[in-house]
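Kindly draft a polypeptide, keeping tokens residue-aligned:

***
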Amino acid sequence: MQASCRPALSVLVLAASLGAGLGACTVGPDFQKPGAPKTDAYLPQQQQTSELVDAKIPGGEAQQIVQSLDIPGQWWGVFQSPQLSNLIQGALRANPDIHAAAASLKVAQLNARAQRATLFPTIGLALGASQNQVAPILQSPLTNQNSIFGLFTAGLTLTYALDIWGGNRRQIESLDALAEAQCFQLEGAYLSLASNVVAAAILEASLRAQVEATRRIIAAQRETLAILQRVSGLGGIPGADVATQQAALAQAETTLPPLEKALAQQRNLLANLTGRYTSDTVAEHFTLSDLKLPAELPLSLPSRMVEQRPDVRAAEANLHSAGALIGVATANQLPQITLAVGFGTTGFATDSLFGPSQTSTNAGASLLQTILDGGALATKKQAAVAGFEQAEAQYRSSVLNAFRNVADTLNSLEYDAITLKAAVEAERASAASLNIARRRLELGDTTYVFVLIAELTYQQTQITRIQAQAARLTNTAALFQALGGGWWNRDKIEATSEADRLRCRPPAPRPAVAALPR
């Protein structure tokens, strides 16, 4: 049996060696990483600022924008809120969107692994057994006239499709790139979830403060109405003044239910983000005083930002995949060579299957070249080229959107800091006006209604200040999100979720720089 197999195997080894030599050729374009953006700024020179004004209140401190400051893996720690950190960690463990993205990554990785099998020979085993009966008229007169017999067969085949033009390798390259894109999509889901939890916590804190201020406004309006009704009953003021105050009270009361509804919906959102039913209670409650503004904010260079943003990196990986598919389409237009070796044996009984006279072997090669297909292969290559052009345009779009995202956030940081400063000044001015009104009331120089009106003005400026203060916290979180979220700085020792354990290809190394506290 070994002697009969040796010639066939020799043919296979010789042909495989030839194929390996030819296989050094890989058709199609080699991927070239897109160049860095040809700019080192996000805004025109006259719009750039590195200092955010100080509103002179807790939660409105000055902030310094520091170029090339690195971002911690758990960037939300800059708000110094253990409640917020616990909530985000719980969300990363339980949120089904993270689980779905992790499963999608696993599918992509397994598909790429399965495609690598095309680089190796395929071995198949075939076994057969049958009971046969031959018609007496067909039997030889020299036989024993036994028309029923068993037939047993066994066969082993080895086939190997030579990857002469690199089509299989290009397909593997494409699938590996798709797996990398999926990895960055998971990173994007991770970043989006953390950012959404932070934004929801900030909005909850803002709404809770606005609800409290609005309730104080309504209480003051009711007290004003009661005073006016008493004075009107004594004939001191006309009834029109009372009606005006009633309308003002009703208007104030209409502003409370929408705020309470929004607060309740934010609680529902936090439950949803953390993978809970809305009937479950979220233990964490947030106030603006729970969240601190970091003194320093990072700002990555544009060349670094495109390396850090998961959406840009995913678009780059998709571009890589599309380029590799051009090589696949090109290889399909060229001759395909397949090697095959077979070993078989046949016997009337299982104990005689592998006898020296029962075995047979074969070896061969086949070449397949499409001559006429109605232009299908050529059209598929054109489609692959068009797909590459599409992926290239989508990559450019993702870069432009990333620039706009960072620029919008920088604008928001600057102007919302100015807004908060003005809101604080307005709040202080209205508080001073209220104090003056109260002193005048003590001296009998004004009426209590005048004091209540001053108090209403003060409460309304409080709501404006609350909204502006929350905007600064939100903008801070938005900047970390716009710059990529620090995923490349997560340590394995910190891993607490599927998202923590993944490791996409990190940004290119750079010189050591300062980093925010982790």
